[in-house]
Automatic annotation (TrEMBL):
InterPro entries from the UniProt entry: Ald_DH/histidinol_DH, Ald_DH_C, Ald_DH_CS_GLU, Ald_DH_N, Aldehyde_DH_dom
Name listed for the protein in its UniProt record: Acyl-CoA reductase-like NAD-dependent aldehyde dehydrogenase
Keyword Oxidoreductase attributed: yes
Keywords of the record: Oxidoreductase
Domain Aldehyde dehydrogenase: 23-485
Family: Belongs to the aldehyde dehydrogenase family.
Active site per database record: E261
Membrane-crossing residue ranges in chain numbering: none
Amino acid sequence: MTITSEPQAPIKGLDKFFIDGQWVDPSSTDTIKVVEPATERVYFQIAEAKDADMARAVGAARTAFDEGPWPKMSHAERAGYLRAIGDAVRERTDDVLQIWPRESGIMYPVAQGMMSGIPDAYGYYADLAGSFTFESAERPTAGGNYGMISREPVGVVGAIIPWNAPMTLIAYKLAPALLAGCTVILKSSPEAPGASYIMAEIAEKIGLPPGVLNVVTADREVSESLVRDVRVDKIAFTGSTAAGRRIAGIMAERIGRYTLELGGKSAAVILDDMDLQQAATTLSGAECFLSGQVCSSLTRIVVPRHRHDEMVEALASTFSQVKVGDPFDSTVQMGPLAMERQRDRVEGYIRTGIDEGAQLATGGGRPKDLDRGWFVEPTVFGNVDNSWKIAQEEIFGPVLSVLPADDEEHAIRIANDTIYGLNASVFTHDADRAREVAGRLRAGTVGHNNFHTDFGIGFGGFKQSGVGREGGIAGLEPYLENKTIIMDEKPKNFPS
């Protein structure tokens, strides 16, 4: 599928914000241009929130939580809204598929595959209304006759969404927050606000009570005002580790709650029995996903030293064959980077890798047949030392580094020698060895012979890759506070 005509964004309210259940005028006339990365054309313009707009959104969410019906509803009642949201998301799939590639550069078929599962996230959390234990009886140990734990909503949530996979990340923040009974300010990325506006339209369509979901688009400075606002009980953030450190520091000043899904520099540990061509094909294909703009990408390839050259050759051969181009072209495997500054960043790291002495096996430049758009060639470096910048810092682009290891113990040390701990994988034909090595890798997810991230089970990182989890039951718990209740007499609605 190739689209060459001037596209129109299938969303409304681009000159407004969705606050307190209404489309409201912004406090200024400032706008943000959303640029299509494959063509460098302006796709649409959207209102830019200022401090006054953010404060208005926070105020609406605070009032909705403190005075509105939403937290007082039963979990089953809120689950009904979640199911309606999931159905509405499914109905808007075609609209999302027009927007997502034009904002982030994701390949249309990849977006298609991801969108197929997003409505299920809302259904999953709706199902938890009947299976999760929101109240449990406990035996008092310090007086009183009846004790219980009541798991109650944390309050007002500021959900800050990045540009690479907004519809997915909205779902795994919004669904558990709403089930818990929280109200939400959804702060969309200036580069990719379309998904958030579709969610605002959905909230309006299904009759979500006013103030339960509020949508604004803002830059970093105004986003910080959301984090600093004492009326916000919790921040749920996905983005860079640098921004995550800033958020954690601000929230610590007032002991605010937060979950952080941050950066990664994930390792693929290749054991000595692995078919290297199989591994290379898998790794090259995975790195095409969103042009490598994925926090959990397996970008450090740790291989036995005596097989290093063979691994580099296999990766270079496979990765160099990837066709780069229009995200809507069915013959293309990888689209552009999302922004000009992102391409500049990736090209800067490629120059750094060359200066550090890495072996450039393939790529390193811009595709010669593409004179427009923010494209970068798939790139492989060999003979990389783990202390170098290209091995330690998140590049967020299609750049793979191959690191030789003396033996299995050395490979594990290399894999763990990073400030990050988001993802990893073990490549071996021996499942028992894979399980043993997986247990020693300091990462929130470890796959076997593939790139895996599973929000259905739970996703998040060790070390500076984050705090908390998204997806699964673990993704619901951060939106709840445990309250201990001690009673002298047993009331009628006490849990058994």
